[in-house]
Amino acid sequence: MIIPIRCFTCGKEISSHYEQYLDLEADELPKNEIFKIIGIKRICCKRMFIGNVDISNNFLQFEMSQNK
User: Fold this and answer.
1) By C-alpha distance, which of 43, 47, 48, 42 is closest to 15?
2) Is this prediction's pTM over 0.85?
3) Residue 20 in contact with residue 38, Cβ under 8 Å?
4) Of 25, 3, 23, nearest to 14 (Cα)?
C-alpha cells in the first residue's frame, strides 16, 4: 500500500480510510457511494484515492541482483 498519509492539497488525513475504500471497491459499489460511506467530501481527497496506483506488489516480483 502506497497511499499518502495526508491529502497533498488540503492536508486532511486520508490514509486511515484506505482499507475501507478497498473493501467497498471490491464489493463493486459506485465511487460516489463509497466516498459517502467513508466520509470523504472534498474533490482533492477523492483524487488521492482514485489516482492511487498500488505498485508495491509489482516490485516484489524482481530479485535484487548483486554486482560482482
Assistant:
1) 48
2) no
3) yes
4) 3
What's the rounded Cα separation, in Å, for the pair 28 and 44? 22
Indicate the length of the chain as a whole number. 68
Where does residue 28 fall: left (phi above 0), alpha (psi -120 to 50 degrees), or beta otherwise?
left
Please state, in angstroms and rounded to a whole number, the distance separating the CA atoms of residues 58 and 67: 22
Write out pLDDT tens, residues 7-66: 999 999 999 999 999 999 999 999 999 999 999 999 999 999 998 887 777 777 776 666
* Whether 12 contacts 42, CB under 8 Å: yes
